[in-house]
Amino acid sequence: MRPAEDTGPSSGADTSAAASGDEGDEGDVPDTTGLGLPGADTIPARAAGADSLLEMTAGAPSRGPEDAAVVVVEFSDFECPFCARAHDTVERVMRGRPDIRLVYVQFPILALHPGAMLPSEASLEAHRQGKFWEYHDALFKHGPPLERPTLLRLGRQVGLDVKALAKALDAGTHREQVKREIAIGDGLVITGTPTFFINGYRLVGAQPYETFVMVYNLLLRASRRDDLALAAPPIPR
Fold it and tell me: Any idea what DSSP says for residue 229?
């Protein structure tokens, strides 16, 4: 598998490889025209079963109702500029939509952002302290570099126990969890960030607001009428 890369909108990035990957059985790539995605004929989406993906990422930070009709699982990197752009879009999508849940999974691309491991670890300590989303927003607002002094300062600003944060960073308390989440992404052949799975359907890159809303509306309607045509197959184990 080739090294991962930052992924912008489909018009400006090679998302075909990022979506289907260089490994695996092409037979599990569904026809994304069923979702009405723009450019679906050139941007195949490898589907992942929504339920099994939630099982794999159990314990990851999430917001929104547990029984939401539409679940967005985001693989992201705090030092990725396209992830920062997508952050603003996702926040806009979440506003005023009670039937959506967002799950954040760590996928720092260390080949491009060698310092991205530390903010991922820091965010998991914020999660342990019950302030993940406040810290998550502060990290993306600040942007790289996100070195130890900055991480502690931002932690203080959002009300974290900074001594506990410093201790966790020094001890690498959450490093193995970050590595486990990276391994999940590798298993899904994620090669760029951000990568989203929306009810199991892959969407790669900092897509425009309109694309997210279109997919949300389609899947929300499908869930209400129990449309099995849009059900994603299970993730290959």
Answer: G
Report residue 36 as tokens.
């009405």
- Expressed in angstroms, the distance from the first to the final Cα of the chain is 18
Q: Dump pLDDT digits (tens) for 112-152.
A: 999 999 999 999 999 999 999 999 999 999 999 999 999 99
Burial class of 128 by CB neighbour count within 10 A (0 to 12, 13 to 18, 19+): middle
Distance between CA 93 and CA 193 in Å, rounded? 18
Q: What angle do CA 160, 165, 166 make, to 5 degrees?
A: 135
By the 8 A CB rule, do 77 and 109 touch? yes
Q: What is the greatest pairwise CA distance in the chain?
A: 52
* Cβ(158)–Cβ(126) below 8 Å: yes
CA dihedral (213, 59, 57, 191) in degrees, to 10, reads: 80
* Domains present along the chain, CATH in parentheses: 5-109+177-230 (3.40.30.10)
**Looking at residue 9, what is its pLDDT?**
52
